Each structure stands twice: as C-alpha cells, then as structure tokens.
C-alpha cells in the first residue's frame, strides 16, 4: 500500500531544505529558529483546537479536514525538529501489544 504520510514527510523535508518560492512549508520554516518553531507550534495548537471543535460538532467531513491539517502540521514540526518518520513509526511499533 502507498504510504502517503511518508511521501508527504519526504516532501516537507525537501521544502525545509530547499525553501522554494511559494512553498507554505518554507514560509513556516524560513525565519530564525525560535520564530520558526513558534510559528509551527502555533499552527499545531490551532489545528488541534479546530480538530477538537469539529469532533464536538460531530460533522465527519470537518473532522477529517481538520485532523488532516493537524497531522500535516505535526509532520512539519517533526521534520523541523530533525525527527525521522521511521523513528515515530518505531515508537508506535514498540508500544504495540504483541
Ligand atoms: N498537506 C498540505 C497542507 N495541509 C494544510 N496546509 C496548509 O495549512 C494551512 C492551514 O491554515 P488554516 O487552518 O489557517 O487554513 P484553512 O485550513 O484553509 O482554514 P480553516 O481551517 O481555518 O478554516 C493552509 O495554508 C493550508 O494550505 C498544507 N500545505 C501544504 N500541504 C502539502 O505539503 C507539501 C508541501 O507544500 P508547499 O510547502 O506549499 O510546497 C505539498 O505536498 C502540499 O500538498
């Protein structure tokens, strides 16, 4: 099965590295480290709140849309902090009840 999240993570890393014109990820990550981290964390917090509100409203399409925003910004945070996708997957694997 195609691993869309892994592919997305690789694109995010490429955008952080190359900072192409018009890239949203580049916009979030181009400032000095403290500012960039604040910008990313603010988005993660905002999207978490929107996900919670959508769950409470109970509209499935909104929950999907907002949680995709949350997961996307979490991937940006991980990539910016130098965490590899596989390191998070390994942690899930470690927790899995065998
Ligand atoms: N998956 C995403 C993605 N998900 C969300 N976003 C952006 O995240 C921002 C979310 O901000 P807001 O919540 O304020 O905006 P909103 O969701 O439109 O509005 P509300 O939820 O507030 O109603 C928007 O600007 C979205 O465009 C994304 N921006 C980019 N990607 C992917 O990331 C990769 C790199 O993108 P670029 O860096 O733009 O090249 C590409 O594969 C893109 O498809």
UniProtKB/TrEMBL annotation:
<dbReference type="GO" id="GO:0000105">
    <property type="term" value="P:L-histidine biosynthetic process"/>
</dbReference>
<dbReference type="GO" id="GO:0004636">
    <property type="term" value="F:phosphoribosyl-ATP diphosphatase activity"/>
</dbReference>
<comment type="similarity">
    <text>Belongs to the PRA-PH family.</text>
</comment>
<keyword id="KW-0963">Cytoplasm</keyword>
<keyword id="KW-0368">Histidine biosynthesis</keyword>
<dbReference type="InterPro" id="IPR008179">
    <property type="entry name" value="HisE"/>
</dbReference>
<keyword id="KW-0028">Amino-acid biosynthesis</keyword>
<dbReference type="GO" id="GO:0005737">
    <property type="term" value="C:cytoplasm"/>
</dbReference>
<keyword id="KW-0067">ATP-binding</keyword>
<dbReference type="InterPro" id="IPR021130">
    <property type="entry name" value="PRib-ATP_PPHydrolase-like"/>
</dbReference>
<protein>
    <recommendedName>
        <fullName>Phosphoribosyl-ATP pyrophosphatase</fullName>
        <ecNumber>3.6.1.31</ecNumber>
    </recommendedName>
</protein>
<comment type="pathway">
    <text>Amino-acid biosynthesis; L-histidine biosynthesis; L-histidine from 5-phospho-alpha-D-ribose 1-diphosphate: step 2/9.</text>
</comment>
<dbReference type="Pfam" id="PF01503">
    <property type="entry name" value="PRA-PH"/>
</dbReference>
<dbReference type="GO" id="GO:0005524">
    <property type="term" value="F:ATP binding"/>
</dbReference>
<keyword id="KW-0378">Hydrolase</keyword>
<keyword id="KW-0547">Nucleotide-binding</keyword>
């Amino acid at each position: 099965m195609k691993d869309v999240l892994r592919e997305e993570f690789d694109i995010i890393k490429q955008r952080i590295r190359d900072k192409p014109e018009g890239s949203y990820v580049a916009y979030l990550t181009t400032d000095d480290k403290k500012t960039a981290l604040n910008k990313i964390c603010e988005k993660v917090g905002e999207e978490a709140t929107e996900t919670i509100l959508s769950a409470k409203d109970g509209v499935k399409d909104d929950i999907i849309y907002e949680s995709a925003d949350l997961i996307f910004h979490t991937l940006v945070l991980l990539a910016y902090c130098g965490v590899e996708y596989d390191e998070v997957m390994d942690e899930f694997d470690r927790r899995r009840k065998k």
